[in-house]
Design a protein that fits this description.
Outer Surface Protein A, domain 3; 4 domains; three-stranded antiparallel sheet; 16 strands; 15% strand; 512 residues; alpha/beta; 21 helices; Rossmann fold
């Protein structure tokens, strides 16, 4: 059996592929990208639809199609679609080499084409066909998202791939190959433990990452027959030969030499060609992975980032502001990111705007609706001329957006903050939890990790119980040994239930 039919990919969302994200980046670069609410989307290499199905759930007016080589994975995804009753998405089995836009009405004038985890992991003939196909699938303002591994950054991981391929050289079945590779990772952990040097440190970190990664990632990234990382410059040339033009990467901060420091900016200052700059940024930053956006070579796009266009978007910030935000001067203030890490800002007006956006999350607010009060707050705090310094505000906000610290949306979003008395989880979330998934899709196409208690609570959120009844249900069936093993300072079950429901509401896991 083909390992791709027996070893399913992990079913999760890839936030960078969502039509809203792609449209924002396209319009930021002067492309007339389609409206996400009514767009046409194709995902090549969709597996079981873990990325595409949540999109369809949140975009009922869009039409989405997934194509994958694995019939069993497509069947599993279509069963989930049928259980959810979604009529705007479907998956079908197909081979990229055999797809024909000329004879297939589903493959014409597409607004967004997605190929995540495909390009570097297929033979060169399929790579060439994928780019050729994308050019002929796209509508005039369409966007092609493609991810791929790049050189020289992937060289270290390539060394680890060589080691693991050798470890499973005598095994034929996927599970036996996985077992041999995992055994080799354990041996590497022991062997590298006391070795000095940067190379040993990097290899230890990569081994630890792989030991907790899904089995499908380990297999198809390190053990599969085909793996072809490329230089970015060579990739761009292949795209040009297929009639595609590079627009940008989803990680916008990597487009700027200053993101790696003043010395890098000075070293690359004499380079005039944008592709040369990006290639050198890959060299200096040792980049190993890219998520690029491509457009048709005849598409009308300015291909220049515009702060004016950025200012027209609505912004949201999943951040926690400090208890006190000083607005009088440029003393740095730290905002906590929900997924870990911090964001530091210094301009008084930026601090005021970011505090307002953080308080309003998950709402997305136009900058114009936040700015007047922020300016008044800075003025009243004695910030003086800082209250009128819109250029510095936009530059700092754009920097936050480019690093993924805040999000931009095409239009404002105002959500109901009132929790239902008897909360109900979204059907997709409940079905995934029932199937044993430990990650579920959020409102904004992210992934939320669930511990066993949170997963059990999701299973109870069918709209028939209030908070008190949910607490009693959990206390009844939650294993006593699990409660005994909890830290002594763990809040009581009632507080945990309220906290989890608040978290689910914040990230859109509940209906309404």
């Amino acid at each position: 059996m083909d390992p791709y039919d027996s070893l399913f990919y992990e079913s999760i969302c890839f936030p960078e592929t969502h039509p809203e994200t792609l449209a924002v980046l396209g319009r930021l670069m002067g492309l007339a990208a389609a409206e996400p609410a009514t767009c046409r989307v194709l995902e090549l290499g969709c597996a079981t639809g873990g990325n595409l199905i949540p999109m369809a759930e949140g975009l009922p007016g869009a039409r989405l199609l997934g194509i994958d080589l694995s019939g069993p994975q497509v069947e599993a995804g279509n069963r989930l679609i049928a259980h959810l009753g979604l009529s705007n998405v479907r998956l079908r089995q197909g081979d990229i080499l055999n797809l024909d836009p000329g004879s297939d009405p589903d493959l014409r004038e597409l607004d967004f084409v997605i190929a995540h985890g495909v390009y570097s992991w297929v033979p060169p003939s399929v790579q060439e066909r994928l780019l050729w196909l994308a050019r002929r699938l796209l509508a005039p303002g369409g966007i092609f998202y493609v991810s791929y591994n790049v050189l020289p950054g992937w060289r270290l991981r390539g060394t680890l791939r060589d080691i693991l391929l050798d470890a499973c050289r005598n095994e034929g079945e996927p599970q036996a190959r996985l077992a041999a590779a995992q055994s080799a990772l354990g041996r590497l952990t022991s062997g590298l433990e006391d070795l000095p040097g940067a190379a040993a440190l990097l290899l230890r970190d990569e081994v630890r990452r792989l030991q907790t990664a899904p089995a499908s990632y380990l297999y198809f990234e390190y053990l599969a027959e085909h793996h072809h990382p490329v230089l970015f410059r060579d990739f761009a040339r292949s795209c040009e030969a297929a009639g595609l033009r590079y627009l940008c990467d989803t990680e916008l901060h990597t487009l700027f030499p200053a993101s790696l420091g003043d010395s890098v900016e000075a070293a690359l200052a004499d380079l005039d060609d944008g592709l040369d700059v990006e290639q050198w940024l890959d060299f200096i930053g040792n980049r190993s992975f890219r998520q690029s956006l491509l457009i048709r070579d005849d598409a009308e796009a300015e291909e220049i980032l515009s702060l004016e266009r950025f200012a027209a978007f609505s912004l949201c910030a999943d951040l926690r502001a400090p208890a006190k935000v000083p607005l009088r001067d440029s003393h740095p203030v730290t905002f906590a990111r929900s997924g870990g890490g911090n964001v530091e800002v210094s301009h008084p007006l930026t601090k005021a705007v970011l505090a307002a956006l953080s308080e309003a999350y998950p709402d997305a607010l136009p900058l114009g609706s936040v700015l007047p009060q922020a300016q008044r707050s800075v003025g009243e705090a004695g910030g003086g001329s800082s209250a009128e310094d819109l250029d510095s505000l936009l530059a700092e906000l754009f920097g936050l957006f480019a690093r993924g610290a805040i999000q931009a949306r095409l239009y404002p979003r105002c959500l109901d903050r009132v929790l239902a008395g008897r909360p109900r989880a979204r059907p997709l979330v409940r079905l995934l939890v029932e199937d044993g998934y430990q990650q579920v899709p959020t409102r904004d196409h992210g992934n939320l990790d669930l511990d066993p208690l949170a997963a059990r609570l999701i299973g109870l959120l069918d709209g028939t119980r209030d908070v008190v009844e949910l607490r009693k249900a959990l206390e009844t069936d939650w294993k006593p040994e699990q409660r005994r093993g909890a830290p002594k300072d763990k809040p009581g079950m009632g507080r945990q239930v309220k906290g989890l429901i608040g978290l689910f509401h914040r990230y859109g896991l509940l209906e309404g």
